[in-house]
Amino acid sequence: MALGANCVLLLALWTLAARQRPVSGHTANGGWQLGDSGTLAVAAEEEHCTVERRADLTYAEFVQRYAFFRPVILQNLTDNARFRTLCSRERLLALFGGSIIRLSTANTFSYKKVDLPFQKYVEQLLHPQNPSSLGNDTLYFFGDNNFTEWAPLFRHYSPPPFGLLGTTPAYSFGVAGTGSGVPFHWHGPGFSEVIYGRKRWFLYPPEKMPEFHPNKTTLAWLQDTYPTLGSSERPLECTIRPGEVLYFPDRWWHATLNLETSVFISTFLG
Predict the structure, then answer these.
(1) What distances in angstroms separate CA 253 from CA 78, 104, 106, 162, 183, one per listed residue?
(2) Which pTM was predicted?
(3) Per-residue pLDDT tens over the stretch 11-62
(4) Kind of pairing, strands 262-269 and 169-176?
(5) 2 pLDDT higher than 60
(6) Are the beta carbons of 245 and 192 closer than 8 angstroms?
(7) DSSP code per residue over 124-147
(8) SS3 55
(9) Which element (helix H / strand E) includes 101?
(10) Rounded to whole angstroms, what are the CA distances from 64 to 67, 94, 245?
(11) pLDDT score of 15
């Protein structure tokens, strides 16, 4: 039986078993380790979320108020409970532990790429970020997915129902440790949803380039640069949790920081 067929069968069996299994504190977090207290103390949530949250947004209002103008956090638009069940640590390792994944360095330009089995990444590299490590020394799993191999998982994901005329959606899936993240960069518009964990976002409009070093991690930027910023220099920021989706418009500068071991998926509109 082909690898793809095996994955489809395993996913079906996992889903049936999940419906009969009670939820505990361990399963509520998907079996992913939160992180150590030292990193958690540095990688904290913002005092005030400055990105609007909307649970009742229509497509017309999305286009008129947000699509080309500012970020927004979407709530209760899709139900990805099934996808979330399949993204637990146990199930991802069972389905894709032997799959080769491509890691990128966590700096602005991501020059370095490293290929290794997903299980090795989870068991040996998925640890809390060292604040003193440089971006080009920090490996991060996000974006370089083998869509054929991971298709049996992605087909269970329900993306946000809002699109933009003339664009085609593309998924990027990731798993990252506490305190990890990507420093400031920009690209086309997209959505980002947290499946497990918490992810803090920092965003600036295209005309307001942030002050940052491209080879310093977001954690180092938060420690060293963020406290020196005046109120008018601060980014828009907010922490999104499981079930929330952040939308960012075209060419907006953004950096991310995982406050816990996080599983997440982005839908880029290219």
Answers:
(1) 26, 19, 16, 21, 10
(2) 0.87
(3) 544 444 444 443 434 457 899 976 655 555 567 888 899 999 999 999 999 9
(4) antiparallel
(5) no
(6) yes
(7) II--PPPTT-BGGG-EEEES---H
(8) coil
(9) strand 100-105
(10) 7, 44, 18
(11) 47
